[in-house]
Amino acid sequence: MSVSSIDWLAVNVQECATQRQYMRHRFLRSVQKQAPWLALASIVTVFLTLPFISFPNEYGLCIALSLGYMIFIVVSLQTLLNTWRSDRLTKVIAFSVVLLFLSEIFLVVGNHRHISVDFSSSTFAIALNSDQLLTDLLMAFLVMFASILCHIQWSKCSQALLCVVIMLPVNGWLACLYGIPDAYGQLSMLASLGGLLCAAALLAKQISNTSMSYLLLLDDSGKHLRWIVCILFLCAITLGGMGVFFKHDPRVTPILVTLALISIVSIMTITYYRKGVVHEQVLPPEDLAFASELEAAIAHEEFYLEYQPQIDFNTGMMVGVEALIRWQHPQHGVVPPNKFIGVAELTGLIVPMGAWVLKAACQQVAGWKDKELADAKVSVNVSPMQLNAEGFTDYVAQVLRETGLAAGRLVIELTESAFVHSDCKSTENLQALKRIGVKLAIDDFGTGYSCLAYLRDIPGDYLKVDRSFVNDVPGKERSEAVTSAIVVLGKNLHYQIVAEGVETEAQADYLKALGCDFVQGFLYARPMSEHDLRQWLSARTSNP
């Protein structure tokens, strides 16, 4: 059944850690997406600006300066190849760009007829006296070393160098602000634009796995850090202006202020990174890319549901099903849930994904009208993030109204962590769900904190014995003792007991003797599509 009518924004996620984590993922991904475009802008800037550069009169210095600009081109191309699909056409384009740059250098240098071929010691002396030339070369080599460090996975060192590179053009801007045209350390127009874009591209490419990403976060910690950096920036620039006003070494003032700004960014970022002010995990690059695919899968509705029957131990009849999500990846085929649920939890994508599962399951089950399916309940797993989301209860009620499914046929399954870490809001949501008639089940009991207080206080209906205990019974005395204790405790608190993961007749007989009410597992049926479920029921009916 199609679920294309699902409103992915129906669940309004509250401004909390869930939303901040989700927005962080999206923001870092959007920054990373800009890497190839920044690299392309750097290449175009170098090509457009190169004819207007005034080359020195010495041939050796021309070669050195051209080498510096060549570094911007090569690093930008490398960023393009790493972020875009590196096929044969892309490599041909990259090779053509390098040839075009060399040709342009040859033409530009050839137009300077007065250039002398002199490699004497005077050339080196002139280079030392050419402040702008040295600064351009410094920026180019810093970019090159940062690229090398990035390639060998020394991301923090690479990030530190890129921080210096990005701050270098500030020196020239401060010189203009202070009215010092001959200040030390000013860059040429090409280095200021092309080099800055190249460094920004390299920074964006590795933004997800460096401490600098903390400076860009959209949560309260990131805002606090940015405010501190801005205030310190303003103080440093003001002090530099006062130094110029009082005529204390005006030519060196911009470069000193620039070094102060670099120190501010580095120290503040490292301090926040070490102290763990931002304590949530930032996704590594491979998980960030996978999360991007997962987000696209939600938008393109690449998921489908399978159902695992739940059997009444006493009658042998099917009383319900558990809805299980599957991902049909366009390239990799079916992706198992254990591969993507963790990333979905980490990024907050579990909220729209869970909304899809809830509505899709209710739509399909509401359409079951024949035989045992007509009264079957459907169990849907709900993440603690969904439970804590604002408007979750209203969304559940809306889904029940739209699909026509009776509230008593919907079972919301929550793990122990959802109850142990639940606050007043989530407790209110549970009470509201019970008021509209929805059933509640505690999943994977005994594997988490096993806090008995919530068993007493939470209005649950079903208690599911985790498969890790079921696997060891009968035969292991300690597992038998734990399993027996869970069943007795649940019964005394008026829970109905569901044994999951049953694979052998011995396990089924043992759990039935303990008093379990329902059972599910491979012994009875594997998760299956809606069509296969109907066939399975027909086969059971014809062969009781």
Structure description:
The protein has 544 residues and is of the alpha/beta class. It has 2 domains: 34-275, no CATH class; 285-538, Alpha-Beta Barrel (TIM Barrel), CATH 3.20.20. The chain is 60% helix and 10% strand. Strands 1-2-4-5-6-7-8-9 form an 8-stranded mixed β-barrel.
Give a concise summary.
The chain is an alpha/beta fold and 544 residues long. Helix content is 60%, strand content 10%. It is built from 22 helices and nine strands.
Give me the count of strands.
Answer: 9
What is the fourth-level CATH superfamily of the largest domain?
EAL domain
* Radius of gyration, CA atoms, in whole angstroms: 32 Å
Proportion of beta-strand residues? 5-15%
Low-confidence stretches: 1-18, 113-129, 275-280
Q: Please tell me what the overall shape is.
A: elongated
**For the report, how would you describe the main beta sheet?**
8 strands, mixed, barrel
Helix content: 55-70%
The name of the CATH architecture of the largest domain is: Alpha-Beta Barrel
Average the pLDDT over all residues and give the rounded result: 75
CATH topology title of the largest domain: TIM Barrel
Report the total helices. Answer: 22
**Neighbour order of strands in the largest sheet:** 1-2-4-5-6-7-8-9
Q: Report the CATH C-level class of the largest domain.
A: Alpha Beta
Name the structural class.
Answer: alpha/beta
Q: Notable features of this structure?
A:
about 550 residues; alpha/beta; 2 domains; 22 helices; disordered N terminus
